[in-house]
C-alpha cells in the first residue's frame, strides 16, 4: 500500500455484470435489456463514498469487457480498486434480471467457477486492511468457494487483531448453500464482528430458539454471540439496533414509492457505516441508513439510486421520527 492513502472503509467480495430486462414479460428473443453491474460489497463501498468517506474494494473480475466496465464504474464512484485483480483464467460473472410481471422480479446467476469466486487470501492487501477504520464483509462471499471463504475468514481475523472495526452483513443466499451449511460457516465470523446486520430469517440462523416476530429479542441474542451491535433490517417496518449494554434503538422506514427493491439492504448498510465513520450516535446511524435505503429502492438498479450528502434533504419530509 506504499504511496497510497488509507481508505476509511475496506471491503472485499464479488461483482458481476447485470443484464436487466427493461419491460415486463418472460425473457425471449428481442427482450430489451439494460447492461450494468452489481455486487453487495461494491454497493456498500459506493454508498460510503457518495456520503463523503474514502472506500476501497478488493475482488476479482475477468479480463474482459464486463470486468473493465465494473472497475471503471467503481473508479468513477471514487472507490479505490487498486487491490482488485483481473483474472485471465476466468470470465466475469453474470446476473440476468427478468421482470416476469410488472411487480415480480426473477433473477438468475452465472457465477460458479468464474472470476469472483476465485478470490483467495493472497489477494488481500493486509496493510490496506490495517489502515482502515472499518472492514465490511458479507455472507455471500464465503458461499462462493473454499478460497473465497478463506479470504473472508483471514480478513476478519486480521482486522480484528489490528483493532479495525469489523462489519458483517449476513446476506444469506439460499441458492448458494443450505441454511445448515450457512449457519455453520457464518457462525465462525460472528465472534470477529463488531457490528452484524441481518434480517429476521438470517438472524434465525444463529438464534433459532428466538421467534422471528420478536426482532428485539433476536438482536439482543446476537450481541451475546460476540458483536457489540446487532442491526435487524425489517424492510418496510424499519430497523432496530441492540447494543452490548442491552440498549435498544428502533427506527421506522422512510415511506417512498418503491421501484426496485434489489440492493436496499446494502444501501441501508452503507448509510449506517457512513454515519459510523462520521462519529454519529446509533440513532443518527439508523436515520442515515433508512434514508439511504429509501433512495435506493426509489430508482432501478442495485446502486444507482444511492444518495449523496447534498441530496438527503430531498426525503426530509418523509423522514418522520417516531
UniProtKB/TrEMBL annotation:
Record GO terms (molecular function): kinase activity
PANTHER family attached to this UniProt entry: 2-DEHYDRO-3-DEOXYGLUCONOKINASE_2-DEHYDRO-3-DEOXYGALACTONOKINASE, SUGAR KINASE
One Pfam family from the record: PfkB
Keyword terms of this UniProt record: Kinase, Transferase
Species assigned in the record: Streptomyces exfoliatus (Streptomyces hydrogenans)
Signal peptide as annotated in the record: none
Highest taxon above the source species: Bacteria
Name recorded for this polypeptide: Sugar kinase
Carbohydrate kinase PfkB domain ranges (all copies): 9-306
Family, similarity comment: Belongs to the carbohydrate kinase PfkB family.
Keyword Transferase part of the UniProt annotation: yes
SUPFAM superfamilies, A to Z: Ribokinase-like
